[in-house]
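Appendix C: a fully annotated inverse folding record. The material below is reproduced so that readers can follow the format used throughout the book. The structure is listed first as tokens, followed by the designed sequence.
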């Protein structure tokens, strides 16, 4: 047993209106109950559903995260929202550096600045790293992830370890049904933890696996010693399936 509390987060991506978020969370609450759970549970909602989601989750163990944040407090950044705006919705945290955002141009420097801005605002953070298929096939997984982890944690303080988690999400596994084997996930999460040890207490840092996690494969993935939970995309859209994944947390 690592002593680290598992975290299972659902990334809804560009899905669900406010009304749908309310319905989803009501069902999730009914499935999970409002008592003590074995894992921390979060849903990462689109900006437009954050307020509805946060209201629906109020008083329950379900936490609400945004999917992205801008580093500036305000200003000429059309289409972006600030950490303060996320806090004002009643949300608890945010994803930073999801590969779908990185593919749209988010840089390592922006990820570092956005992690810092979110932590400064009092938000919890899940920061994502992971390699492409070409990088894995070229044997570049470890140096690539090392660079991303070093960049993401460059402005994090050691005492912030409890408010930040890293999600190792190989791009080739996201939305493809090609889940990493438990051994592959374990090796990469262990490597992420080793690199992160230069910044944060590795015994306290939570490292999640993400990439085609389902109720059927979640148990074996989350049972790995360096896998402290899951970031779940497609399978989190159905509250019953997501609750089934939460139930597999060790
Ligand atoms: C994700 O969006 O972070 C993700 C892991 O997606 P999926 O579970 O659909 O692969």
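Designed amino acids, in order:
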């Amino acid at each position: 047993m690592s002593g680290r509390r598992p975290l299972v987060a659902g990334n809804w991506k560009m899905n669900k209106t406010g009304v749908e978020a309310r319905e989803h969370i009501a069902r999730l609450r009914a499935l999970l109950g409002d008592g003590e759970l074995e894992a921390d549970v979060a849903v990462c909602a689109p900006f437009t559903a954050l307020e509805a989601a946060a209201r629906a989750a109020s008083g329950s163990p379900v936490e609400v995260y945004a999917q992205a944040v801008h580093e500036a407090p305000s200003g000429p950044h059309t289409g972006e929202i600030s950490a303060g705006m996320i806090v004002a919705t009643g949300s608890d945290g945010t994803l930073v550096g999801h590969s779908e955002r990185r593919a749209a141009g988010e840089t390592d420097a922006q990820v570092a600045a956005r992690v810092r801005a979110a932590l400064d605002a009092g938000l919890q953070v899940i920061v994502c790293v992971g390699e492409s298929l070409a990088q894995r096939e070229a044997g570049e997984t470890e140096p690539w992830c090392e660079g991303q982890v070093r960049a993401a944690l460059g402005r994090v303080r050691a005492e912030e370890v409890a408010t930040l988690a890293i999600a190792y999400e190989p791009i080739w596994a996201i939305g493809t049904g090609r889940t990493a084997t438990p051994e592959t996930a374990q090796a990469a999460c262990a490597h992420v933890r080793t690199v992160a040890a230069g910044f944060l207490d590795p015994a306290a840092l939570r490292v999640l696996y993400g990439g085609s996690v389902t109720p059927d494969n979640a148990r074996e993935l989350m049972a790995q010693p360096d896998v402290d939970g899951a970031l779940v995309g497609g399978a989190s859209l159905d509250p019953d399936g997501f609750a089934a994944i939460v139930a597999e947390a060790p």
